[in-house]
Amino acid sequence: MELKVSTRSHAGNTIIAVSGEIDLYTAPRLQAEFTRLLAERPDRVVIDMAGVEFCDSTGMNVLLSALKRLKEAGGVLEVASPRPAVRKILQVTGLDSVFIVHDELPAELSQP
User: What CDD domains does this protein's entry cite (predicted)?
Assistant: First the structure.
């Protein structure tokens, strides 16, 4: 399955909307977007995962790497709208306590 990644800014925040499956084959697409984005040194990045049907350990490693790099630059990475399968992975791995996880995209970011 293809991975779609789109990025937009709203009120000084960056939202990355991801849909499809994040796995060994598609994770480099997400990694490339983070690399491009981190060069801009954003303060807050929210990953909207409402469209993500599956995320394996490779995808989680991409998110962890981005979190680490953002923290080092003084920024924050948040996860929004994870579907049940993705939420379960976050819970089983303990990453739900590492990331700030929102049930839905924060209201202040939901306007395009």
Answer: STAS_anti-anti-sigma_factors
Q: What angle do CA 73, 76, 79 make, to 5 degrees?
A: 145
Inter-CA distances, 99 with 66, 79, 90, 112, Å: 11, 7, 9, 24
User: Is 13 inside a domain boundary?
Assistant: yes
Tokens representing 61 are: 């490693």
Q: Supply the pTM of this predicted model.
A: 0.92
CA dihedral over 98, 32, 43, 52, signed as positive or negative: negative
CA distances from 3 to 42, 75, 77, 93, 101 (A): 23, 25, 20, 23, 21
Residue 44 lies in a domain: yes
In this predicted structure, the answer to whether residue 31 has a pLDDT above a threshold of 80 is: yes
73 domain residue, yes or no: yes
Give residue 97's domain range. Answer: 4-106
Residue 91 in domain: yes
Instruction: Answer for the pair 23, 75: CB distance below 8 angstroms, yes or no.
Output: no
